[in-house]
Write a structure and sequence with these properties.
Elements lengths: L1 E7 L5 H9 L7 E6 L7 H6 L6 E5 L9 H9 L7 E4 L5 E2 L3 H14 L4 E9 L15 E2 L1 H9 L10 E4 H7 L10 H10 L4 E12 L12 H18 L5 H16 L5 H13 L3 H15 L1
Parallel strand pairs: 1-2, 1-4, 2-3, 6-9
Antiparallel strand pairs: 4-8, 5-9, 6-8, 7-9
Length: 297
């Protein structure tokens, strides 16, 4: 019923990830590990867990994560067999011991609500496993647009590991391949939910690891800037007409900010001006023009 897919590359925290799976009080899950041609072969570690975890391991001969993390996710997902629900767990993140049990305890209700996206409460941990954040909880059911607004206002956080998706949604809708897969996970939450509420399980925790060894722990970059622009402009283009004015304003705020941080992109300027026209945001255009003029002066 539940597949836990791990796109593997780094062994640094992988033992903690596997141990958190071995500690699950409910064993009704199968683990699929896709090795992205890692120089750190995990076979000895996996040998240790062969009697405590039900897993399938595949080593890919070519590295895809360095080119496209989304493509690496996709080929790992191809390993999944008959499971209906899928979690994509980072090789450095961990699960609280009751995550799987809580999923099954709520399965009947979330299917009744026609939810195709499930999320757990989260906490952030550092490279030593120390907790460095509060517990992030969510409404029991929440539309994706409300989730985005809370996130943009700084009221919550989100990463791929704390979500469980209906497999058929992943297969039909697919992840959008942004640079570094930055914001690809957030967009997946929006699109895989398909207009139905996101269902939250606050009684179990997923621990997201923030360290210098993952993309989130690294600073801003040109690639992240590209991804942000693609993400915000995609949301506006495809879903903007359905959004509240408050969410629209937040999206335009963020879109303008990333554009001002990378001005030498003429095609992106055209995209931004086109969105101003579509949403009748002429005052925003004038305001942005003044900012550009002031920066030049």
């Amino acid at each position: 019923m539940l597949a836990i897919v791990i796109p593997y590359y780094k062994q640094t925290f992988f033992k903690a990830t596997l141990q958190s799976l071995a500690n699950q009080t409910d064993k009704r899950f199968h683990v699929y590990i896709g090795d992205d041609a890692s120089p750190e072969n995990p076979k000895k570690l996996l040998e240790f867990y062969k009697d405590t975890l039900d897993f399938h391991y595949t080593r890919f001969e070519t590295n895809l994560g360095g080119i496209s993390l989304v493509k690496q996710w996709e080929r790992c997902l191809e390993m999944v067999q008959n499971e209906v629900w899928v979690m994509i767990l980072g090789d450095d993140d961990t699960l609280g011991p009751n995550v799987v049990a809580s999923f099954y305890e709520n399965l009947e209700f979330l299917e009744k609500e026609k939810s195709t996206v499930v999320r757990f409460a989260t906490q952030v941990i550092n490279e030593y496993g120390d907790v460095i954040s509060k517990v992030y909880k969510h409404p029991k059911t929440e539309l994706a647009s409300n989730f985005l607004l809370r996130k943009f206002k700084g009221g919550t956080r989100s990463s791929l590991s704390e979500y469980v998706f209906k497999k058929d949604k992943i297969t039909t809708v697919k992840f959008k391949d942004f640079p570094l897969a930055w914001s690809s996970d957030t967009l997946a939450v929006v699109e895989f939910s398909g207009g139905n509420p996101i269902f939250t399980i606050n009684s179990a925790l997923v621990f997201f690891r923030l360290s210098g060894k993952n993309i989130t722990g690294q600073g801003d970059s040109i690639e992240k800037n590209k991804a942000w622009f693609q993400f915000y402009s995609y949301l506006l283009s495809k879903y903007g007409k359905q959004y509240s004015n408050e969410l629209l304003e937040k999206l335009f705020d963020r879109l303008e900010k990333v554009q001002l941080n990378n001005k030498k992109t003429p095609l992106r300027w055209l995209k931004l001006f086109w969105l101003y026209i579509v949403f009748f945001k002429y005052s925003r255009f004038l305001s942005l023009f003044k900012k550009i003029k002031q920066s030049i002066l």
